[in-house]
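Notes to self, Succinyldiaminopimelate transaminase:
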Amino acid sequence: MNPLLAKLQPYPFERLRQLFAGVTPNPDFAPISLGIGEPKHPTPAFIQDALAAGMGALATYPATAGDLPLRQSFTGWLERRYGLALDPATQVLPVNGSREALFALAQTVVDASRTPAPVVLSPNPFYQIYEGAALLSGAEPYYVPSVPARNFAVDWDSVPDAIWARTQLVFVCSPGNPTGAVMPIGEWEKLFALSDRHGFVIAADECYSEIYFRDEPPLGGLEAAARLGRSDFRNLIALTSLSKRSNVPGLRSGFVAGDAAIIKSFLLYRTYHGSAMSGTVAAASIAAWNDELHVVDNRAQYRSKFAAVTPLLEPVLDVRLPDASFYLWAGIPPAWQGDDAAFARALYAQYNVTVLPGSYLAREVGGANPGRGRIRMALVADTAECTEAAKRIVNFIQN
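result:
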């Protein structure tokens, strides 16, 4: 067996199952889960109709690069959303969800034969696929902490020069999971300068870009590059998905866009990897990318939930409205002495509400885990259920 598999850590939700093992939650309360970031809003009917209408494509092998109308739906959306003009033939590719693409991109980019061992940078806390992708590519993960005092901005300045010199890939998550923070253009400019100096690729994970709470939409990586005069998107790949934007996590549909040279190599990898998007899924995807009304409605539903829940929790938790995403990244009360796992277990036992311990989403570096003492709450259920969960959390803390 591949010895690198032994380096993989249990996924956060497996750790959560182990944490709750042997616990019988209070039967007086119906279960409410804020633990998993799985969209619960209904899939729009027109997307389901497009999927059904595209069933004829099941009789045909799909092209790995995707047909032109699919790629044009990507570039059309990028133009409407960010004001960008990308070539549908060379600068975009369909992927089977951003998770699959994040993993595969690392396998394409990393040259494990180099010595000393290559490094892949990840924010800390982070989406665990970044770590797994780095390890299975033969690279060494390096965890860069987020700073609460700076709106959870990633502290790129803390990375030593010796690490930058070995870095081949940097994962950026903006809006962030779990923090919801959006990276400003000054941070992008810093990363681009470092990429130019050291030659590493930047993978911009932007699957939460359409769920935001400010008047101005979140800045995207490609958009930042264009504003800074980097119209070739050198060493930059942005990844996005329909899962959160359009409430179709089971469709497994997204796309990557950016540097044409990297896209070319990524297409070669994917041709052998066998990861072409079904024509049936492509038909539904085109319909979704070409419509914005359902996205506006989806965003309004999340705004309503956060407006109802955040004020309830602010008096008892260290929490505030994030820039974007559907997570609340909350600090637990001092009485718990930073034991977020014990907090989550007791909350589940007493009030049947599931939250994810923040330490499960981060790694300890230098004796500190930046997720310790925090919990992640995914406000994916309807407003009434999320509000009920918030009220239970308030009662749990006060009692």
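- The two ends are 51 Å apart (CA to CA).
- The mean pLDDT is 97.
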